[in-house]
Specification:
single chain, 404 residues, mainly alpha, 17 helices, 78% helix, globular
């Protein structure tokens, strides 16, 4: 029987890869299905823009609590077992949103429901990525980027489902209930194929209860912070830049984020081949530099051609190149964190926490800079931050045959 580099049979590694991919898709699908229902919930509960904005901070806050804890949980009970536990809990948490978004509900209940939803999603994120690293080690080459691509595709599919459900006036509880049940029927049977994590040396340090970046994880966590700050800022501010600063119409304003998302997904689909060929750290430096330079070039042309349609096209092109540039960086940073020590899960949790913090605070930072200067100047900060991995992720000495 053919075996992988870690002694796992090739067939078992393939089954585990399918199970992890479906888990990522399920996670993205439910997450994506929520976004199109936000305006409906806002109107139903009579929330102001400011109150809704505070409520939408809750998932990120919940994630920041459970991300560092999930690493220790996975290290103690195994990433495969705990991922199987976390998936139904994540789907169950979505039903709390449906309960809070009922007639007579209020902002406090919605905040609490979204906090629990974010906490469950953050825990699942660490656990499934830890199992993804275990599968990657069994394969002996990069596969983690493909899982993140599947998440993006799942989120896209979920967005379509949520939009259709909103258009057909399907209750939120029915949407979450049917979608969650369908995914559990698909994923849980194949989840039995998750691989056991590699054994930990007896002289390894005890697993921390609360995983924080230490030693070689610090620059990786800061790089993850920078990458997801750029991603979160693009999601929230690119359309505003095109509409308010460059004069794009309502339909064209969303083109920048659409282009960014498309190249992000495509980059992750081919990212594993790139990472295997170039090595993780080298690929991160090259792609981060390319993305930051691409956005800077687009912004520069947009400024020089302000007031014309060329400015809009240039800005869209800049965000398109940024998406391609940072597409593989976050998965690569997680994969790199997973091989820095004997336990992958706590390291993943520490680096993920840095990334999610960047995603959470990035839009606020850009808004503050825009208030002090202008939005055009603030977006230049995104280009600068996106280049941070170039200087943070340096070469490391590795054993022959490893991917670095």
């Amino acid at each position: 029987m053919a075996v992988s580099p870690t002694g796992v049979s090739v067939a078992a590694a393939r089954r585990a890869r399918l199970a992890v991919a479906l888990t990522f898709a399920a996670n993205g699908s439910l997450f994506g299905s929520w976004a199109p229902r936000v305006p409906e919930v806002k109107a139903l509960l009579g929330l102001s823009d400011g109150v809704l904005g505070l409520a939408l901070l809750a998932p990120g806050a919940g994630s920041l609590i459970t991300l560092p804890l999930a690493g220790g949980i996975a290290a103690r009970w195994g990433s495969g077992r705990t991922t199987r536990w976390a998936l139904p809990l994540f789907f169950a948490s979505s039903l709390l949103i449906a309960w809070a978004a009922r007639p007579g509900g209020n902002a406090a209940e919605l905040f609490g429901a979204l906090f629990v939803f974010g906490a469950a999603m953050g825990a699942l994120d660490v656990l499934m990525n830890a199992q993804g690293v275990t599968v990657e080690q069994a394969y002996g080459r990069s596969v983690l980027s493909s899982f993140h691509a599947v998440f993006s595709l799942g989120a896209l599919g979920g967005t379509v489902i949520g939009s259709l459900a909103a258009g057909w006036h399907i209750p939120l509880v029915a949407q979450f209930g049917v979608l969650g049940a369908a995914w559990l029927v698909v994923v849980l049977p194949v989840a039995r194929g998750f691989l056991p994590d590699p054994p930990v040396p007896e002289d390894a340090a005890p697993t921390p209860v609360f995983a924080l970046p230490r030693g070689p994880l610090v620059p990786l966590a800061i790089a993850a912070f920078a990458v997801l700050l750029a991603e979160g800022s693009t999601a929230d501010w690119s359309a505003v830049l095109l509409r308010d600063s460059l004069g794009a119409g309502p339909a064209a304003a969303g083109a920048a984020f659409a282009a960014f998302s498309a190249t992000m997904t495509l980059g992750r689909l081919v990212g594993d081949r790139v990472l295997t060929r170039l090595g993780r750290r080298r690929a991160v430096r090259l792609f981060a530099g390319f993305g930051a330079t691409g956005l800077a070039a687009g912004l520069l042309v947009a400024e020089l051609t302000a007031g014309s349609s060329v400015a809009v096209v240039a800005a869209v092109a800049g965000f398109l190149l940024l998406g391609a540039g940072i597409s593989i960086t976050f998965p690569a940073l997680l994969a790199e964190a997973g091989v820095t020590g004997p336990r992958a899960a706590p390291a993943l949790a520490a680096v993920s926490s840095g990334g999610y913090l960047g995603f959470l605070v990035g839009p606020t930072v850009i808004g503050g800079l825009a208030e002090l200067t202008s939005l055009g100047v603030a977006i230049w900060f995104v280009a600068l931050v996106a280049a941070a991995p170039v200087v943070l992720v340096r070469r490391r000495r590795v054993a022959p045959g490893s991917t670095s």
